[in-house]
Amino acid sequence: MTATPALTPDQLTTLNDYWRAANYLAAGQIYLMDNPLLTEPLRPEQIKPRLLGHWGTTPGLNFIWAHLNRAITLHDLDMMIVIGPGHGGPAALANCWLEGSYSEMYPSVPRDRTGMAALMRQFSFPGGVPSHVAAETPGSIHEGGELGYSLSHAFGAAFDNPDLIVACVVGDGEAETGPLATSWHSNKFVDPARDGAVLPILHLNGFKIANPALLARIGDDQLDALLCGYGYDPIYVTGHEPLVMHGQMAAAVDTATERIRQIWADARSGAAAAAAAAAAGTRDPVRHAWPVIVLRTPKGWTGPQEVDGLPVEGTWRSHQVPLAEVRTNPAHLRQLSDWLASYRPAELFDADGRPRPDLLALIPPGNRRLGMNPHANGGLLLRDLDLPNLREHAVAVEAPGSVSTEPTRVLGAMLADVMRRNLATRNFRVVGPDETDSNRLGAVIDVTGKTWEAEVLPVDVNLTPGGRVMEILSEHTCQGWLEGYLLTGRHGFFSCYEAFIHIVDSMVNQYIKWLKVSRRLPWRRPVASLNYLLTSHVWRQDHNGFSHQDPGFIDHVVNKKAEVIRVYLPPDANCLLSVADHCLRSRNYVNVIVAGKTPSPEWLDIDSAILHCTRGAGIWAWASNDGSGSGEAAEPDVVLACAGDVPTIEVLAATDILRRNLPELRVRVVNVVDLMRLQPASEHPHGMSDAEYDALFTPDKPVIFAYHGYPTLIHRLTYRRNGHHYLHVRGYKEEGTTTTPFDMLVLNDMDRFHLVMDVIDRVPGLGPRAALLRQQMTDARTRHREWITEHGEDLPEVAQWIWPGARRPAREAEPPARPRQAGGKAIRVPGL
Asked: Which is deepest, 554, 625, 651, 826, by most CB within 10 Å?
């Protein structure tokens, strides 16, 4: 598709003058500390001592912003912008200042000479603002420090916003990243009958920091084939003469807008019939070719053409600061002065630094401004979810361990209820990389189906354009969709295999930093929290093997700011319900929930679970024999602590062995749900005071702590605590393979037998008295190895263990298994 001119001479002049003003302000931000209007000759002391910023992409971004302003006003568009080349921060700041949104958010930077000076001085300056598009930038939802996520953020913003167009600038360097390459496929998940649209603008200025950009060098035929293959209809705008380019770009944006509106109209005029057909399973989605604008401009456009005899404009040398020695090199100072003067600022701003009235006429009114669109400050639009009473989904527990469930399946029923209750408001989605059903959340799919706008075959199930469960085998895309969805005022849930959530480590870094900064900006309203469910976890990936066994995402997020991150390790399904309910109600956090999907015991009834999760950590009196809860409490001889569903089972099984064989030993069982409770209150808002910690764990008794992840994290969280040298942590230590569930625990020394040995070794004076029991525990581990090698499954005494006193329902009751033989020896475990 080729664009044609669409501007009157006056419109052309206004557009070009606006662009000149934005370019002047952007260049001034990189260089100037004073003399913002060039009312006197530039002097070295008016130049910043450290020149930081990225000029190369900035003129193109200013060009795009100017044309989006025109289109918004002309077509009355609800439009927001996502800037992929995020180091072009000077452009976003310049345009926000010109349109007045910056001064509304930051009254200390008014739209006059004083404000212009402040705008320029603060850029990349101590105590000022970052060089890239960031949370501080009005109109932004995209952290520009790392490349690759702009399109997925843009599509996340467009979902369920039927009148919104998200203009997404994709830089040619960013286009080389894996996440961006995959996110082009997001158009197969947009339902034009219900969703908004994304208008990608692929900005090809030809170069990255020091190399050519691939998509700028493959030729138009291959680029066209690539974009058409992704499902887009390209519109090309190419050149370097500003007035010619303005005409082309205006026509391109108009054509794209018309095409988007036509796609919407076609889909929505037949929406009722399409919905009926989809419900009957007969609708095959119509593939729409969405417009994409390919903008080819010189890198560093309108900047210095040469510096020190070397070409700069249109080359990689313009990527950052074209003139780097302005303070010390008189020739560079003269060249900078000539460059800035070429924009003729006296024609663009009055003597008080205010933009000329006809320039302001180009700017859309009120919330139509790109810097003020409420979707880019999603907390303004956020509505609470209609959440069910979690007790309606609770598991009935007559006694600890009396029933087993698949915890995430129980959660799936609750999430399905959440989805059902919020269908009318269309503000809740579940994302995941092809694992929703595998992770036992299939009940949600039964409510809405899975989003799909590509071909549907007769064998396919639960695929529908209007589905609200979104699956693509790209964790990056899932993360980007959800971030964009949350930042524009909605709610969501991300389920993933625990080992592979690491794929988004860097993305969640950026998002946590975004939330950390947002929390100190009074104009940024809180958004719904980003909620992860990590399942198929390290202790139950015995069938997939070592590659699927990694609990380190917890360590990764715990490194971040305490005010943002939360980590929950519910021990059973009822606790999982309580934690999930809390997370869905929370704001401005990244919540990490780790829970298993395989059958496991239920320990707490729902009321006890709610109380326990509200505390975050507590003594399980029913499992302890130190007198806890009896009114006759004595100090324990040992504390057995646990965090995580499988560690909880092992701690309780070890407690059972100890209580049967060493009844005089006073054992206290402590379960931790909220991992951050272990930190001091001075380090984390959820942290315990020293008095609380000492009361729970004691200051001078051995603590054997079975933890879901890497043991070093527990030591990090508790290193300031009294009695830290009495703390001994068992967890995952990078031992894994394809084996049985219990063998995973044995390989990492977190099995019940080894925990009993740890108690014997660490309780003063217990070693000689319990030498035989310790020997029996060692023998049990040896016999375990013999058994699994011969039979391929865990010992019956392990697999069938239940907490003493637990009453199984009749349907689950089984007669005691007759011991099988391994190597001619009956295998029994003492005390079980």
From this structure: 651
Q: Which residues lie across from 165 on neighbouring strands? A: 79, 197
pLDDT of residue 552: 87
**Residues 370 and 95 sit within 8 Å (Cβ to Cβ):** yes
- Show the beta-strand stretches assigned E in 158-255: 164-171, 197-204, 232-238
Single pTM value for the model: 0.94
Residue 782, CA distances (Å) to 255, 772, 788 in order: 74, 15, 10
**What's the pLDDT score for residue 271?**
58
Contact 536, 495 (CB under 8 A): no
Backbone angles phi, psi at 680, to 5 degrees: -65, 155
Q: How far apart are CA 463 and CA 460, in angstroms?
A: 7
Residue 168 CA to residue 471 CA, distance in Å, equals 22
Residue 199's beta-bridge partner residues? 167
End-to-end CA distance of the chain: 75
Q: Which residue has the tokens 């024999």?
A: 625
Q: CA angle, 184 as apex, 82 and 486 as ends, to 5°?
A: 45
Residue 806 confidence (pLDDT): 78
For 165-182, give one letter per residue: b (16+ CB within 10 A) or e.
Answer: bbbbbbbbbbbbbebbbb
The pLDDT assigned to 408 comes to 97
pLDDT per position as a tens digit, 466-517: 999 999 999 999 999 999 999 999 999 999 998 899 999 999 999 999 999 9
Taking the C-alpha atoms of residue 709 and residue 538, their distance in angstroms, rounded to an integer, is 8
Extract the tokens encoding 4.
């044609």
Question: Phi, psi (5° rounding) for residue 103?
Answer: -70, -30
Which tokens go with 156?
């996340």
What's the CA gap between 808 and 800, in Å, rounded?
12
Q: Which residue has the tokens 């932004």?
A: 140
- 741-to-331, 544, 599, 750, 802 alpha-carbon distances in Å: 72, 11, 12, 12, 16
Q: pLDDT tens digits for 24-73? A: 999 999 999 999 999 999 999 999 999 999 999 999 999 999 999 999 99
Output the CA–CA distances (angstroms, integers) from residue 666 to 365, 624, 660, in the order listed.
Answer: 72, 8, 12
| Per-residue confidence (pLDDT) for residue 275, from 0 to 100 | 57
CA dihedral 63, 64, 65, 70 (to 10 degrees): 100
pLDDT at 546: 80
| Mean pLDDT of the region 341-350 | 97
Asked whether the beta carbons of 252 and 237 are under 8 A apart, the reply is yes
Record the tokens describing residue 821, joined without a space: 């033989």
Cα–Cα distance, 580 to 602 (Å, whole number): 17
Q: What is the pLDDT of residues 390-399, one digit of tens each?
A: 999 999 999 9
pLDDT at 814: 36
**CB 167, CB 81: distance < 8 Å:** yes
How many residues comprise the chain?
832
H/E element holding 511? helix 505-518
**Distance, CA of 153 to chain centre:** 10
**pLDDT more than 90, % of the chain:** 87
Contact 591, 566 (CB under 8 A): yes
Cβ atoms of residues 345 and 37 within 8 Å: yes
Whole-angstrom Cα distance, residue 8 to residue 76? 19
pLDDT tens-digit map of 424-474? 999 999 999 988 999 999 999 999 999 999 999 999 999 999 999 999 999
As a whole number of angstroms, the distance between CA 16 and CA 12 comes to 6
Task: Report residue 184 as tokens.
Answer: 């082009």
Residue 633 is predicted with a pLDDT of: 64
Concatenated DSSP letters of 443-497: HHHHHH-EE--S---TT--SEETT-SEEE-S-HHHHHHHHHHHHHTT-EEEEEEE
Q: Strands 404-405 and 600-601: what pairing? A: antiparallel
Measured CA to CA, the distance from residue 97 to residue 375 in angstroms comes to 19
Q: CA-CA distance, 176 to 170, in Å (whole number)?
A: 10
